[in-house]
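This protein record is not my work; I was only asked to verify it. The record follows directly below this note.
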Amino acid sequence: MSDTTAAQGDPGEQAGPLPPYSAADIAAAWRRERPGTPTESIEIVTPIWWLGKLFADDRGRALREAGIDAATLDLLSVIRRSGPPYALSTREIARRTLVTAGAISQRVARAERDGLVRRAPGTGGRRSVEVSLTVEGHALIERSVDAVLGREAALVGSLSPQERDTLTGLLDKLMTDVRRRTAVERG
């Protein structure tokens, strides 16, 4: 991975372990090589990208071990979190996952073929479809969510409860502002 890639934080170009240098080293090198270059984001954005890569890779391993893919985990999780009777309309699933209706339709069809969910006519009109967990789907999400969230809890375990609260608040603040700013720039 080049310094440019690291400074931009693109984890897709990273192969293997993280580089032996820090984000502070990258920022300092840019300040030395290009005085006046805005570097104040590097020590925030680069570690976020690196952490995202580490978390994504680790989650992928946990999902493979649990025998589920990320899209199916997302689908089953949304339905499971809805509470008994563990059923939601496809429209509500799309709203809660921020995935397009077409992608939800594909996920539901695949999960139905695998015996994890069942579809039935919904109560919201003639085109409404309700998706519910089967016994097999319920069992799979129970095992999978424990495996994934247990692993992720262990990965953030070095932070004290107070540090986790502080980080959660700061990340929420940053996420809210970045969403607002990027929506304005796109729209």
Remarks:
- Residues 1-15 have pLDDT under 50 and may be disordered.
- The radius of gyration is 21 Å.
- The beta strands are 87-89, 117-121, 129-133.
- Helices lie at 3-8, 23-33, 42-66, 70-81, 90-97, 101-113, 135-155, 161-186.
